[in-house]
Amino acid sequence: MGLKEYKPTSPGRRDTVADDYKDITTNKPEKSLLAPLSKKGGRNNRGRITVRHRGGGHKRRYRIVDFKRDKAGTATVMSIEYDPNRSARIALVLFEDGIKRYIVAPNGVTVGDTVASGDDVPVTTGNSRPLGTLPTGTLIHNVEVTPGKGGQMVKSAGAVAQVMAHESGYTLIRLPSGEMRRLLSNCLATVGQVSNLDHKNEKLGKAGRNRHRGRRPSVRGSAMNPDAHPHGGGEGRSGIGMPGPKTPWGQPALGKRTRRNKKTNKFILRRRYDR
Fold first, then answer.
1. 163 pLDDT more than 90
2. What is the pLDDT of residues 4-22, one digit of tens each?
3. Of the candidates 8, 19, 63, 129, which lies 20 to 30 Å from 147 by C-alpha distance?
């Protein structure tokens, strides 16, 4: 993929840096792998807003992506497609028995390439293998945390993890955040880096691009009245008036560590903030 800059024909175009989509090979998704996706507007099953700043946006259909990569046999890449529900590209693959599936497209995989899953498949980009069978230093993505559940980590555009070591049934990997974590060696992972590397360099350019994505405006707490937010009030452009920032409900925000899963602490050898 590449990026496209625009001439400043309007204030919104002046700073826009957009995707050129030249790596996309078709604009028609596979109908058998589509599912309806209703809009929630950030609301739960009781109709209450539980996630703010969500709503509107372009209509989408969900692409059923195979994160498990558990089907044996060789598949041929039929197309590289845009997915409105994620930052990475997806690849449509066709197995020898005629079954089609979507997978997260690895960087460098093109139409006509073959991908496979299994313990003894080659260690090449796009192939899926158990962590314990991968050589030290291998770059991976779409990593399972629980064997058989499907990839849960390292799936966004440009993301990549690395196999660091193998020890007594566990594999040590380095995550994109810098965290060093042990996972069971029979967890599957896909070789290579996730596609769409330039996603992080895009600039929306105008507020309307955010609305197209279903993101509504976010108002600063310091611009509110004191009855609406802990940061509100004061004369003119005042500070927040407290030692650290808070949420609208008075809880510590912006940097407060909220991890509570003590059962898996023993698998994390280095935290992402200890780099």
1. yes
2. 999 999 999 999 999 999 9
3. 63
CA angle 79, 84, 88 (to 5 degrees): 60
The domain limits of the chain are: 3-37+61-200+261-274
Name the nearest CA neighbour of 267 among 160, 130, 145, 147: 145
Write out pLDDT tens, residues 177-229: 999 999 999 999 999 999 999 999 999 999 999 999 999 999 999 999 999 99
Break the chain down into helix, strand, coil percent, rounded to 5: 10, 30, 60
Where b means 16+ CB within 10 Å and e means fewer, 52-73 reads eebbebeeeeebebbbbbebee
- Residue 124, token pair as written in the block: 């090449």
Contacts of 8 (CB under 8 A, 6+ apart): 14
Which residues have C-beta within 8 Å of that of residue 50, sequence separation ≥ 6?
A: 42, 43, 44
Q: Which tens digits make up the pLDDT trace of 84-121?
A: 999 999 999 999 999 999 999 999 999 999 999 999 99
Predicted model pTM: 0.91
Nearest to 126 by CA among 71, 84, 72, 189: 189
Phi and psi at residue 267, in whole multiples of 5°?
-90, -10
